[in-house]
Amino acid sequence: MNELSAINVISKRNFKPRWVAPTLREIKRRKDVEDDRNGGPKIFHRSTFLEWLNYDAEIFAFSNRLGEKFNEATLRTALTHKSYVERETARLSDIGVDSYLQIQNNEELAVAGGALISKFTNGYLRAVFTRVPEELIMAMHDFLTSTSNLEIVGKHIGLGDLMLCSDFPCESETYVKSLKAVVAALAESSGEERARIFVQDLVVTQLYGLDINELWNPADPVGNLTDILKREGKAEPEFRLIKHSGQNSVLAVYYVGVYSDKNFIAEGAGESLEIAKEMAAREALKQLFHTEDSMKALPFGRQLKNIQSKIVQLENQPNLPLSKWISEKVTSAVH
Amino acid sequence: MSNKHLFLPSGFIRTPLQNGLGRYIPQLQRITLKFCKNHGGSRGVRDFIETDLMEFAKTNPGTVVYLKPRRHRYPCMVAEYLNGEREYLSCHEFSRAEIQKWLSYMCTRSGIPVMRFRKYQHTDYPSIQGVWNPFTHQAPEINVAQFPHEILSKPVNNGPTATDQLIEIFKKTQIKDPVKPEH
User: Distance (Å) from the C-alpha of residue A264 to the closest C-alpha of chain B?
Assistant: First the structure.
């Protein structure tokens, strides 16, 4: 049986005989040599350890940890993977017991849960970023529902030890499927509203600290800005050089400002005139969409109480695309 | 007092998965109490299990408590956190109250290893109006000015010099010419 060895020890004063430290050092050195030869230390699933977890207790703790009430059968189904069911049937038939296992797997729940997560994320983004074009909303949605993001969320709520799957160490896809199935199970057990709050609390909060302008930028900001100003009936954007320094050096910087009918809109800086012009157009668009660096902080958790109804309303209502964007048609977010 | 000789890593305060931003999830996944049923050093653990353990389990329903009696071995507790970290603590000769305190310590931690906090706050946006650069607050007139310029070539916020001040004082002390009487 394998034994768990803890890494972090809360140390106390300890007088050991002289030979203990050198012996342990030599054992560790030999172990490291073996591990390097085998390409990394061997890892085992928690079930192989002497103190194996009590699955019922772990399920109970899982739902309490999240503060949600699950229908236990649905939750167990959500954590069972097809590969596990196949492996168990194969194992039983190998022994000779030819019973057809009645365990359900989480394929359908995962599909339903994926749709729910997508819907709830879109609702939040459209309610909070009311002035943003649909392309940026889609970029943020794709990031939040990406495999890497959902895998991190799944790992940190303790799904790793609860999932019944045949692959170990579990792949990202398995974690993502389990998380989606859990969301669907929650919607079934406690209702869609609780599932919405769950997704807002766990998936959407990963937007915190992220620079959304890194996720998406318009391909032709100058053209887009010209179109928008034309649609609004304002004058064409005029780009003027405001400041420059170090022109013939490696560290040249140019500041270009965008003006519409002699009114200053935004300025951008760059290493060359073309770059600075593009940055200025980007800054102007950011100001129109209210996504500047100094934009308001995003609301999470309890701060969403007042806009929940708006979120529900906007779940199926996409924002304006960039080709049709105009300030009169968008409202500023109040949160 | 440098950081080079310390084995304690240092960093900024952080939390796994933005815990607390949406909802608070207690990070302690499971705790295993290992003790001997007979030996004296496990007495505190045994007393704790008989009296306070049920209340602890009820107040922390998100944590699974495992009890592992091991003969002729000293008592200890191993805490496992949601981010995969594990903490070991020897409970030999602990009293019931000590075990209670250490257990509550384990409950309130995230799994992030103990580190020296450089600062007790952290922000991803240290500047809202934008970091200062030499162009901030510069008059736009410098772009089309011909130097040497009357105003822009002179230093800004130059108060009156000492010579100017003395001249002012002298002027104030001057007796003004008396008004000539009309004849």
Answer: 13
Given 3.20.20.140, 3.30.160.20, 3.90.1150.10, 3.40.640.10, which CATH number is that of A218-291+304-327? 3.30.160.20
User: Which among A9, A243, A301 has the least Cβ separation from residue B22?
Assistant: A301
Tokens standing for A21? 């430290």
Paired sense of beta strands B116-117 and B10-11, if any: parallel
Pick the residue of B135, B138, B141 with the most A CBs within 10 A to test the interface with A by mutation: B135
A246 close to B (CB below 8 A): no
pLDDT recorded at residue A103: 82
Instruction: Decide if B109 touches A, using CB distance below 8 A.
Output: no
User: Given a cut of 90, is residue B120 above it in pLDDT?
Assistant: no
Contact A61 B64 (CB under 8 A): yes
Cα–Cα distance measured from residue A176 to residue A78, given in angstroms and rounded to the nearest whole number? 11
Q: Is B152 on the interface with A (CB under 8 A)?
A: no
Within 8 A of A241 by CB-CB distance, chain B residues are: 143
What's the number of CA atoms in the CB half-sphere (13 Å) around residue A293?
A: 13
pTM tops 0.80, yes or no: yes
Across A40-78, b (16+ Cβ under 10 Å) vs e yields eeeeeebeeeebebeeeebbbbbbbbbbbebeeebbbbb
Name the residue facing B18 among A62, A66, A205 (closest C-beta). A205
Q: In this complex, do A201 and B134 lie within 8 Å of one another by their Cβ atoms?
A: no
CATH architecture for residues A55-212 = Orthogonal Bundle (1.10)
- pLDDT above 50 for A1: no
Predicted confidence at residue B175, as pLDDT, reads 77
The residues spanned by each domain of chain A are: 55-212, 218-291+304-327
